[in-house]
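Input chain follows. Return C-alpha coordinates only.
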Amino acid sequence: MRVFPNPSSGVIQVAFEQEIHKKVSFTLLNSLGQVCQSGILSEQANRIELENLSSGIYFLNLAGFDPIKIVKQ
Protein backbone atom coordinates (compact mmCIF):
# COMPACT_ATOMS: atom_id res chain seq x y z
CA MET A 1 0.00 0.00 0.00
CA ARG A 2 1.20 3.52 -0.82
CA VAL A 3 -0.05 6.82 0.60
CA PHE A 4 1.00 9.94 -1.31
CA PRO A 5 1.78 12.79 -1.45
CA ASN A 6 3.06 13.03 2.07
CA PRO A 7 3.29 15.80 3.14
CA SER A 8 0.08 16.96 1.49
CA SER A 9 -1.64 20.29 1.10
CA GLY A 10 -5.14 18.99 0.47
CA VAL A 11 -5.68 15.46 -0.87
CA ILE A 12 -3.92 12.15 -0.28
CA GLN A 13 -4.10 9.08 -2.45
CA VAL A 14 -4.25 5.60 -0.94
CA ALA A 15 -3.22 2.97 -3.47
CA PHE A 16 -3.19 -0.73 -2.76
CA GLU A 17 -0.52 -2.86 -4.45
CA GLN A 18 -3.06 -5.46 -5.48
CA GLU A 19 -6.75 -5.26 -6.21
CA ILE A 20 -8.75 -5.36 -3.00
CA HIS A 21 -11.77 -7.64 -2.87
CA LYS A 22 -13.28 -6.22 0.29
CA LYS A 23 -13.94 -2.81 1.76
CA VAL A 24 -11.26 -1.39 4.06
CA SER A 25 -12.32 0.99 6.82
CA PHE A 26 -10.13 3.96 7.70
CA THR A 27 -9.91 6.48 10.52
CA LEU A 28 -7.88 9.68 10.41
CA LEU A 29 -6.78 10.86 13.87
CA ASN A 30 -5.16 14.14 14.90
CA SER A 31 -2.14 14.28 17.22
CA LEU A 32 -4.49 14.27 20.24
CA GLY A 33 -6.09 10.99 19.13
CA GLN A 34 -9.37 12.63 18.12
CA VAL A 35 -11.17 11.25 15.05
CA CYS A 36 -11.11 13.85 12.26
CA GLN A 37 -12.47 11.65 9.49
CA SER A 38 -13.51 8.07 8.87
CA GLY A 39 -14.86 6.08 5.98
CA ILE A 40 -14.55 3.09 3.70
CA LEU A 41 -12.02 2.50 0.92
CA SER A 42 -13.26 0.12 -1.74
CA GLU A 43 -11.08 0.77 -4.79
CA GLN A 44 -7.49 -0.05 -5.65
CA ALA A 45 -6.82 3.75 -5.70
CA ASN A 46 -8.69 6.08 -3.30
CA ARG A 47 -8.68 9.78 -2.44
CA ILE A 48 -9.01 11.23 1.05
CA GLU A 49 -9.71 14.95 1.27
CA LEU A 50 -7.69 16.88 3.86
CA GLU A 51 -8.61 20.39 2.75
CA ASN A 52 -10.87 21.08 5.75
CA LEU A 53 -8.19 20.09 8.26
CA SER A 54 -5.67 22.40 9.92
CA SER A 55 -1.97 22.00 9.18
CA GLY A 56 -0.35 19.42 11.42
CA ILE A 57 0.35 15.74 11.98
CA TYR A 58 -2.35 13.11 11.52
CA PHE A 59 -2.41 9.33 11.71
CA LEU A 60 -4.18 7.25 9.10
CA ASN A 61 -5.41 3.93 10.50
CA LEU A 62 -6.51 1.36 7.93
CA ALA A 63 -8.03 -1.94 9.04
CA GLY A 64 -5.37 -4.64 8.67
CA PHE A 65 -2.44 -2.21 8.17
CA ASP A 66 0.01 -0.36 10.40
CA PRO A 67 -0.83 3.31 11.13
CA ILE A 68 0.68 5.87 8.75
CA LYS A 69 1.81 9.34 9.82
CA ILE A 70 0.45 12.05 7.49
CA VAL A 71 1.66 15.64 7.46
CA LYS A 72 -0.88 18.26 6.34
CA GLN A 73 0.78 21.49 5.22
